[in-house]
Amino acid sequence: MSAPSRARPSAPLAPRERVRAALAHREPDRIPLDIGGSRMTGIHVRAYAGLRAALGLAPVEVRVGDLTQQLAEVDADAMDALGCDVRFVGPRPPASYRREMVEAGAFVTFRDEWGVGRRMPRDGGLYFDSFDAPLAGDPDAAAIDAFAWPDATDPARCAGMGEAARRVAGDEGRAVLAGSICGGLTEGLFKLRGFEDGYLDLAGDPARARHVMERILEVKLAYWERALAELGDVVDVVAEADDLGGQDRTLFSPATYRALVKPLQRELFAFIRARTSARILFHTCGAVRDLVPDLIEIGVDILNPVQVSAAGMDTAALKREFGRDLVFWGGGVDTQRVLGSGTPDEVRAEVRRRIADLRRGGGFVFATVHNIQPNVPPANLLAMWEAWREEAPYA
Q: Where are the domains of the chain?
């Protein structure tokens, strides 16, 4: 690959043009900003309310854009005030799905369209965690096939996605990031089988693990077939995800990843690539340095969230080793320790460090490491934003 271009525009770019330049490994007028532009770069409803107040914006009824993670739907006035460059467009549930919220003891519960139980404590709850796996136990291949797999082709699923994308790109001028129908292949395995059974499958019954993940892949392929046809050439980034890393190592061995997961991901990314010119963003938390070459090999263009606090995820080293092949979307500030627990001065120093590591030659979109959590004080959010604003210009 040729060296990234450092030619800079002479005038401010529109947000979508700015993001496209960064994705092409060119230095735009400034580093693009993403706050609330995806389900991996979002902000918790409590933190969002505090941020709006700190920005002096008019009070609004905060809308929940992602129920499970309790992420806010970031309003256009907040995006304009912050200078955000990207907005999310995603699918809807099928017409046949009806969410039923049930109060069960100390929890509020529901089942998602995959049949996975979700619950949040009624007193002080922050998220809906999965708690009941519908394929737990010892299902054979026939039982797995007979499972009520979601219908990705339901017309309601993608209804309005194209119109929403055109509104984002045309009326707002922002880049369009399209979300997937569900989480990743291994994430789906663990939710459907439960963590214990899922890990036992990976270690002792790989054929069953592969079977479940193949069925999840079929749902994903059917979804992207319809979604990309609906979106056309308006979409700029296509987002997929699968958490592969923990704090100090991958969640299962690289050998297991390469034998069971990588071939299916390669098929998924090739399918997407054949239907769109949009860049492929892949979200994986944790210590995944050992898998980055594999991800590049199978077609990943953009790595998110760049968990800087995990082993081997030093931003300067990642940029040096992989910056010609990967765009880093995230890594702008450590959310595990600094953003929530540090002082505003510590937040500013962290932001300056990460920008210095990742900015050169483009290929960088500033975002927090995963979603902004409810414990983050508004003062720290303003410190992060002010430090980004000071360091963002390339000229």
A: 15-96+138-391
- What is the chain's pLDDT, residue by residue, as a tens digit (395 residues)? 334 445 555 579 999 999 999 999 999 999 999 999 999 999 999 999 999 999 999 999 999 999 999 999 999 999 999 999 999 999 999 999 999 999 999 999 999 999 999 999 999 999 999 999 999 999 999 999 999 999 999 999 999 999 999 999 999 999 999 999 999 999 999 999 999 999 999 999 999 999 999 999 999 999 999 999 999 999 999 999 999 999 999 999 999 999 999 999 999 999 999 999 999 999 999 999 999 999 999 999 999 999 999 999 999 999 999 999 999 999 999 999 999 999 999 999 999 999 999 999 999 999 999 999 999 999 999 999 999 999 999 97
Beta strands in the chain (DSSP E): 64-66, 71-72, 86-89, 102-104, 107-111, 117-121, 129-132, 175-178, 237-241, 279-283, 302-304, 327-329, 364-365
- Which residues 6+ apart lie within 8 Å of 304 measured at CB? 38, 40, 41, 239, 281, 282, 283, 284, 328, 329, 330, 367
Residue 323 burial class via C-beta count within 10 angstroms: exposed 0-12, middle 13-18, buried 19 and up: buried
Half-sphere exposure of 149 (CA within 13 A, CB side): 21
* Global confidence as pTM: 0.96
CA angle 313, 216, 267 (to 5 degrees): 65
Cβ atoms of 262 and 209 closer than 8 Å: no
Q: Does the domain formed by 15-96+138-391 have CATH 3.20.20.210?
A: yes
**Distances from the Cα of 225 to the Cα of 99, 153, 255, 271, angstroms:** 26, 9, 30, 8
Token digits of residue 211: 């079977």
